[in-house]
Design brief:
The protein is mostly helical and about 160 residues long. It has 4 helices and no strands. Helix 3 packs antiparallel against helix 4. The chain is rod-shaped. The relative contact order is 0.10.
Length: about 160
């Protein structure tokens, strides 16, 4: 009877862990899609602005009265192009930074949740341990708690 109780507990814990993993993958996938969406929006806006700017510069070059005037028009675009490239880089870095922060937060939440689930399972399983194994159970719980603490410290 005691063995069946432990098997049932393990089955429930396994099912719960699988459900948590699916939920975690779903969340991570959603975050990845948001990141990709942000990158696509940034790139579309950048391409659109670049085409508009190139069209305007082309019109100015074609309207120039001589080669010197056309050269001045082209040369005058160097600083605005550099500024736009720097702005693009800042936006790209912001998207990447947010994605990293979101993924780190999600990973920390999942690790904490998994540790809590395992602690509950260990506590439930050790409650039904046979008489005379109290020392082993306490040592196991202490080692498990130490391993969890070390892992949590590693993630910080």
């Amino acid at each position: 009877m005691n063995l069946n109780f432990n098997v049932d507990q393990l089955s429930k814990a396994t099912k719960s862990q699988i459900e948590n993993q699916l939920q975690a993958w779903s969340g991570l996938t959603e975050q990845a899609l948001h990141t990709v969406s942000g990158l696509v929006e940034l790139n579309i806006a950048t391409v659109k602005a670049s085409l508009e700017d190139a069209s305007a510069v082309t019109q100015e070059v074609l309207a120039a009265k001589d080669l010197q005037s056309a050269f001045v028009v082209v040369q005058s675009q160097a600083q605005p192009v550099a500024d736009k490239a720097a702005s693009y880089s800042r936006h790209l870095a912001a998207i990447a930074s947010k994605a990293q922060a979101d993924l780190t937060k999600a990973a920390q939440e999942r690790v904490a949740e998994a540790a809590a689930n395992m602690n509950t399972l260990v506590n439930d399983l050790t409650k039904t341990a046979p008489a005379g194994t109290e020392t082993f159970v306490e040592a196991f719980k202490a080692n498990f708690a130490n391993a969890n603490a070390a892992y949590a410290k590693f993630l910080q």
